[in-house]
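Morning F.,

Quick status update on the modeling queue. The single chain you submitted on Monday has been processed. Sequence for confirmation:
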Amino acid sequence: MVYIGIDIAKRSHVLSAVDDDGKAVIESFKFANTDRGFEKLLERLKKAGVEPGGSLSGMEATGHYWIALFDFMTSHGYDVAVINPIQSDAFRDVWTVRKVKTDAIDAAMIADLVRYKRYEPSALGEEATDELRSLARYRMSLVERSTMLKNRATAILDRVFPELDGLFSGSFGPTQRALLEHCSTPSQVLSTNVRTLERILREASGGKCGREKAEKLKAAARSSVGVGFGSRTLAFEIRLLMEELDFVRGQIDEVDGELARLLDETDGRWLLTVPGIGLVLAATIAGEIGDANRFDDAHQLMAYAGMDPTKSESGETVASDGNMSKRGPAALRWAFMQAADSARKYDPYFGDHYAKKKGEDKKHHYVALSGVARKLMGVSLALMKEQRPYEPTPPKHHLPGHLQEAAK
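Structure tokens below.
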């Protein structure tokens, strides 16, 4: 058997290969991340007598740069294992004590890791699941962008019109955004006819706000302690910020529609049956988990998500500081913690578990919540594997993951 290690980068990759004894079969060489580069890779493999049936390749999951090469090699019959960078980083510390890191060394190290670990070949997930993960992460970036815009607008308003904050509930809802696009400083409000203000507020709020709110705006503008210096330019900036915020929120709505479509094509649709879990959390969890069948039980999923407790062992002593290892997708941890906080409020099964941790065990809120999140992991895995809706009491035929194989 020949073990191939490939160090992945954006523009080029480096390959190295060893045999069962760790002896070099192919010395490290670089090839471009292009069709010609991939053909060069095949030529080198064939020249060295490395056939698809007698080799196993390993590559790190570095961004998205590995996917094209993975698809190319598997389409030519080569088995490829996608390696978590955490594992290769840990192996690198054992493989060499020298503080040297080059692409050639990394490729040789990955080849040796594949030889040592004997990984199972990986497979690309279903297209809908991969798209779900990508789109859910993009939505998170849009939300971050929205938050940044609101923070900037808040900082400006605190300077030029601080009284405005007490007149609107929520954070830059449709009514407040519409007002700020027209007038965002006391002087602009005072120079705008009260009927015009009333019309802007009424149309944006769907009739919930009107003359009374317009009069309050006028009164707040007359007694405002906002700074007038430079307010004209700042008002211009606020208008552009609100226009951009409208655009970003429109994109989020579009993304939500696409997430709903994709989620319905995956086993993640069953997560929507858990009380408190909505579209965004279900889509994020399903996209990050991928194929639920690759996890034998909830403990494997916890470790994958980095929600397993850190442990240290010395002799017969095993200690845990209770902290999460956090060695996995941060988006998955975030989604499970958010989902756990919702589920405990809307479902007695999770609510009782949270209350027990908080009451009997005297745990901190976040510690108790992480316990609910871990329990929710097991439930989510079961729903996706068994393709069934959530039930507060598991059905009689249900078995934990590690018992399902034994029952077959």
